[in-house]
Fold this sequence. Notes:
The protein is mainly α and 156 residues long. It folds into two domains: 1-30, no CATH class; 31-146, no CATH class. Helices cover 56% and strands 0% of the residues. The protein is built from five helices and no strands. The chain has helices spanning 4-15, 20-25, 33-41, 79-104, 110-143. Helix 3 packs across helix 5 (110-143). The two termini are 31 Å apart. The model is unreliable at 1-10 and 17-28 (pLDDT under 50). The protein binds zinc ion (ZN).
Amino acid sequence: MRARVATGAxxxxxxxxxVRELCLVSxxxxxxxxxxxxxxxxxxxxxxxxxxxxxxxxDLVEACPTCxxxxxxxxxxxxxxxxxxxxxxxxxxxxxxxxxxxxxWPDVPWTPLLVGGIVLNLVVPLAxxxxxxxxxxxxxxxxxxxxxxxxxxxDG
Length: 156
Ligand SMILES: [Zn+2]
């Protein structure tokens, strides 16, 4: 079990880019499952919590600018993000539909609910796919901790 003080000190050193190798030789920078997932949900680097990882609305940079963790961990990696975005669509669609029925019962406006549901199914994947990527990386890191070779030190 890691000591909180030591982990915090290493996180600070890693975030300041002073001794990157220290981050790689020690697995103490591996976040806990809750922290990795929380960082992914917050749209931050699940490995270090750093910001600036979006290259656009739906794109991530290749590697975290803070800890240099490479986000694409294997070929076809973003299939997991597609599963996450499908789950997000289901959640938003379920909230919209069930919430709409509950709020307007017994005079449910079926046509506006249907049209709104269709719009949600179109807009959510386009607007939140980038976020689904950080959630996916967080989920993956929660169960498959980062290996030293997944941090890119060569391109500075
Ligand atoms: Zn990072």
